[in-house]
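Hey everyone, long-time lurker, first post.

I ran two proteins through the pipeline my lab uses and got sequence/structure pairs for each. Pasting them in order. The first:
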Amino acid sequence: MKVVEGVRAGSELTFVNRRFTHAAVWARARLAELEAGFTIEKAQVEALKARLFARLRRRWMASGALTARPYSRGLLRFLGRHFARGSEPGLFAIR
C-alpha cells in the first residue's frame, strides 16, 4: 500500500523511484563485474584446452590415431605379421 500512498504523496513516490534506480545501478555494475570475470575465466579455460590438446595431439599422431586411412591398424598389423608382408595394402583397403 505504500506505493499507492506514494502516488498520492509525490515525495514518497520519489523515494521509491530513487531506491529502485539505485538498485538497478548496483545490479548493472555487479553484472558488469561478473561478465568481466567470466570472460577472463573463459579465456583461461580455452588456453588450458589448447595446451592439453597440443600434448594429446603429439601422442595421437605418434600412435596414428589422427591419420586418415581407409584400412584399420589392426588389419595392417595382422597382415604384416602373417601373410601380406610384401603386398600392397591398398588391395585390402575398406571402401
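...and the second, right after it:
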Amino acid sequence: MGRSHRLSIVVVAMALLVLVAGGTGLLTGCGGSDTPVASGTPSAGAMTAALRPMADFKLVATPLESEVEFTGDRVVWRVPPQDVGPRGPWPDVEVSSFDIAGGATTTDEWLTGLLSRRAVTEWVLAGDRVAWIDISETVGGVDGYDDLFDTSVYTATRGRPAREVSSPAWSAPGDSGRFEPAAWGLACNEMLVTWFGRRSELAPETPKGVKEVEGGYLWAWDATDGGRHRLADQVDEARLAVGGRRVFTAAPPSPASSSYPKSTIHAWDAGTDTRSTIRQDDLVHSPAAADEKTLVWTVMPPMATDFVDVDLAGYDLDGGKAFTLSRAPGGQSNPAVDGDLVVWVDTPLGSNSPLPDGSWPLSTLRGIQLSRLGTNAESTLVADPFTDESEDSPFNDVTLIGDRLFWTIMRDDACTAYGARVVVGADGLTLEPLRD
C-alpha cells in the first residue's frame, strides 16, 4: 500500500504533513495537569532474561513485499503488482488470509474481488471495514484533460457493496477550476475513513496543463451518518491518529511565537463538525495512536540531541488529563493503544552500530497498563536485535486489538507476522502465544 510498513521515527515535514516544533518543557500548556510516570530502565540483560523467544509468537511468513494488515483473528496480506504503468493493464492480485486459530492460509475472495485489477495505491483494513485509494479511472468533469488520473477513495464492509466516498469531481466550494486528483495518507477505523486531498488547478501554460496548488484538505467519511466532512480547509496540520469518530491533528507553531514554540494538538469531531484544542506540546512526532478514550503520541524533549531520543506522552480524552508514558533513554515511538493497554517500540541510543563484542543492540516492544500509571509498571514484552546500520527497528506494523498484539519483522527475504496475547499480572505485562 502507499504507506510504509517499516515503522520509523520521523519528524513530519510540511510537504509530507509531518510537523516540527520546539518546546521548553515536557507536557506543559493547556488541557489539564500532567501525570508523571517514574522513569528508569533496567539493563538489557535484566529486561530480556525472562522473555519468551520470538519464535513462540510466529504466525506466518509472507513475501517480503507484502502489505500486511491484522484483524483480531486473521493476518491478511497482499503483494502489489510490480512494474505496472499508471494505465495498466492491472493484473489479478490475490489477497491472502491466515486464520490464527486454524492455522490455514486461504484466499480472501471478498478482498480479492475489491482490490484486484485495480490501481490500488493504499489500502487499510479495520475489522470488517476496508478502505482503499484507486487511480484506475481517468478524471471526469474537466474538459480537455482526460489524461489526468482520477484518485478515488472507496470503502466497504464485509458482505456489502463498495461505495465511493471521494473523487476529484467533488471540488470544494469557492475553488472554481480546481480539483483534487490526488488522495493520499489513508487511515480508517470501523467508524471513520480519513484522507488528505492534494489540490491542483488548470494551468494551460504548463506542459501538462495542470499544476499543484499549495495546501489541500483533510477529509473524513463517517459511517454513522454516511456523510463526507471537510475537517480542515488547508492541510497545514499533520494527522496524528483516528479514534472513535474523532481525528487528531497537530498544528505547526509560528517560528517567531517564542524561543521554544509549541505544536498544538487538535481533535476534529466528524459527528459535530467541530474542532477542539487538546493541548500544546513540544516537538511532535508521527505516527501516533488513539481509541475512543486515549490519545498517545511521541514527543521530542527540548534537550534531546537527535530524533532517536524521544519520549511517549498521552491524553485521557474522558478525564481531560495529560500524562507521560515513558521517558526511558533512547526512542519510545510507534505506539498502539486499545482500552487500558498501550504498547510501543523502544529503540536504544546508538542502535545503528554494533556493540564492542560484535553483537547488535536489542530493540524491544514495551507496554503499560494505563490504570497503573505512576507505579513504574512499564514492562518489556519481547526483544529482537538490530541487524544492519540501515534498519530503524526490527519491529513494524505494531497493532493492538483488544488484548492481542501483532507485529511484523522484515528479514531473510520475508515479512513475518507475529502475534501474542497481552497478559496483565501483578508484576506488569507479559506475552503468551496465540497458537500452541
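Reply from user beta_strand_b:
Welcome! Quick read of the second one: The mean pLDDT is 77. Helices lie at 44-48, 109-115.
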